[in-house]
């Protein structure tokens, strides 16, 4: 049946395909490379949201559809990619224990056929090294990055810097601990930026985050003078900042913190 459909004139094929659901479209697209090319020309933009999650036991992909539809099907890739439907979470999952080539294949197929709206990353293991090359591939394909939650990072400084650089265009960023010299926070333009343990962050790094809308940093090692400098800089040039929350373990003098600030409300 699929191969007979592919012999139809382009206009006829387009009329048929545009009324199909995701399951039918993907079933036809995975039968051959020719089918994939033809279907990609005639499908509407069924934007999907992708979440790549790295757990201790495996890595998997979640797919969410903007129109609420879902499906359950088998997939054919060069690398085995078992896909199943999670009824409790109401989404489609794909688990594997292989390298990032498998992820690249599924991202390519979904983007060709259904169009990817954004890709998010969640790292629940103690090593984010497996996700960094995948995130770099997403950036290479000019796909939008949504939520980034790196959890606890365990790796060398080079990998951590790659992790931060690839996350700079994400909409939401969360990291468990930050501990390297990084001079590119001025490139970050996020709706929300959060670090659970920011004891190694400097005053200049915090000031450089002014293009983020909401910033939340816990366990910073700033005294009253440091916080005052940060606030003065933001008062002079707030950038896109809407909210700044700092949690410090140091003894803070409120009088010193608000020195020189004209617009202050103390609660």
TrEMBL record:
Domain called F-box: residue spans: 2-50
InterPro entries assigned to the protein according to its UniProt record, in alphabetical order: F-box_dom (IPR001810)
Superkingdom of the source species: Eukaryota
Protein name as catalogued: F-box domain-containing protein
């Amino acid at each position: 049946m699929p191969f007979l459909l592919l012999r139809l004139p382009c206009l006829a094929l387009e009329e048929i395909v545009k009324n199909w659901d995701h399951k039918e479209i993907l079933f036809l697209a995975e039968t051959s490379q020719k089918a994939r090319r033809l279907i990609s020309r005639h499908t509407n933009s069924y934007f999907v949201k992708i979440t790549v999650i790295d757990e201790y036991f495996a890595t998997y992909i979640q797919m969410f559809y903007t129109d609420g539809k879902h499906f359950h099907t088998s997939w054919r890739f060069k690398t085995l990619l078992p896909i199943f439907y999670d009824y409790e979470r109401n989404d489609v999952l794909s688990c594997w224990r292989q390298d990032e080539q498998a992820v690249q294949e599924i991202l390519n197929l979904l983007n060709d056929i259904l169009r990817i709206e954004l890709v998010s990353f969640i790292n629940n293991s103690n090593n984010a090294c497996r996700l960094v090359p995948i995130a770099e591939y997403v950036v290479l394909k000019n796909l939008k990055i949504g939520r980034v939650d790196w959890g606890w990072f365990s790796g060398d400084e080079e990998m951590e810097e790659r992790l931060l650089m690839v996350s700079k265009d994400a909409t939401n960023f969360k990291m468990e601990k930050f501990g390297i010299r990084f001079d590119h926070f001025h490139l970050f333009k996020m709706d929300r930026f959060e670090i659970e343990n920011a004891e190694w962050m400097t005053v200049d790094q915090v000031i450089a985050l002014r293009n983020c809308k909401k910033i939340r940093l816990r366990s910073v090692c700033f005294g009253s003078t440091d916080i005052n400098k940060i606030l003065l800089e933001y008062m002079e040039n707030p950038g896109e900042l809407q909210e700044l929350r700092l949690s410090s373990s140091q003894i803070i003098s409120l009088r010193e913190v608000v020195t020189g600030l004209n617009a202050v409300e103390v609660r």
